[in-house]
Amino acid sequence: MHDMILVGGGLANGLIAWRLHVLQPALRILLVEKEATLGGNHTWSFYRQDLTAAQHAWIAPLIVRQWPAYEVRFPGHRRILDTTCFSIDSARFHDVLMRALNSAVVLNASVTDVTRCSVRINGELCNAHAVIDGRGHAPSEHMRYAYQKFVGQEVRLRQPHGQALPIIMDATVAQSDGYRFVYTLPFDEKRILVEDTYYSTTPDLDLATIRNNIRAYIESRGWQVAGVAREETGVLPIALSGDIERFWQDKQGALACSGMRAGLFHATTGYSLLYAVRLADELAVLKTLEADAVYRHVRAFSVRQWRSQGFMRLLNRMLFFAGAPTQRYRLLQRFYTLPHQLIERFYAAQPTLFDKLRILSGKPPVPVLGAVKAMCKTGKEISSKPS
Q1: 173-226, pLDDT tens digit by residue?
Q2: How many domains, in total, are found in the chain?
Q3: Which of 61, 227, 246, 267 could disulfide-pair with 309, CB 3.0 to 4.6 Å?
Q4: How many CB atoms lie within 10 A of CB 178?
Q5: How many contiguous H segments (helices) and E segments (strands) does the chain have?
C-alpha cells in the first residue's frame, strides 16, 4: 500500500514527488511514467519574481542556466529588462529526480484503470491512499482556449553566436499564423536554443514549414549550424473563458489532478512551472494524504488560481479578437513599454489593481470598437481541443 501514486512523470507530478520525499521521507511514494525518462523533452523557463526565495532555494538543483536580464525585439520597440531568468531542461530534471527518488520511480510503465485510490501498473493493481493524475492537458467542453505552439531546436554553431542574454520575444520576424516570434536561449558561446513560436487559433504544427523558418532565422543572424542537438515541440493552451466548477465536475470519481490536467497554467503564457512549484509546496505540508483531502485541496487550489486570472483571460480575448492576426504583435509591443515591475508581476500572475488599470489605460494599439467587442467574446469560435 502506497501513501501516494503519481501517474505521469512530467513537471507537476515530478515536483510533487520530489518535494514530498524531501519534507516527508517516510512516505511511500510512487512516480509512474510511460516513457523511458522523466520530464519528456522540454525546456522550462521562469523569472526570479515568479517564485519566493524559499522556492528558488529548493528548486535550485534543477537549474541549468540563469541570466541577469533578457531582451525583447519588436518592429517599433526594443528593450532589455533587468529581470533574472532561469531555465530547467528535462535532462537535468530526470537526473535530479532519479537520484532523489530512485526505486520510487517506475519508467516505461503501462498504466490503466486509474482511480482515486488505485492504478494498474504493468498489469498489477497497486493501491494507495491517494492518486494524482498528471498526464497532461485534457480537453473540456467547459473551457475555451487558443494556443501557444512552438518548435525549438537546440543547435551547435560553428562560431560563437555573440548573444549574451535570452531574447524571449523577437517579433521582428514575418508575422504568420497569428502572433509569431522567435525565442532564443544562449546556453554557452556556441550552443543556443532557437524556438519559433505562434499565438494561434489552431493547435496544428506544420513541422516542415516551422523548421524552414528556424533555418531562415538562424541564417538571418549570420550563424552557421554545426549540428542540431535536439528538437522539442509543444502546444500550450491559452485560456479565453470557461467554467472552472463544471470543468472539475466532469472529472470522474473525484480523482485529483495536477499541472495542465488541473487547469494550472498561466492563462496568457501557457507556462505551468510557477503553479507546479506552488502546488508541490502546498501538498508537501498536508497533514493527511487521504484521497478526499488531496482532491479537495487540489480542486480548491485550481479554482482559486483560475478565478485570480480573469484579467489575463480578458487580455487574451483582446489579443485574439480585437485586430487582424498580423497586427497582434502591437499589443505585446505596447505591453513591453510599461514599467519593469508591472511586467514582472504580470508574469508571476500577480498583477495589482493599479497594474490592470495601467495596462488598459491610454490609446489601445488596436481599434477601440474591436477591443470592446473582444472583451465580450467567449472564444466559442475556437476549438477547445489541442493536439
Answers
A1: 999 999 999 999 999 999 999 999 999 999 999 999 999 999 999 999 999 999
A2: 3
A3: 267
A4: 21
A5: 12, 17
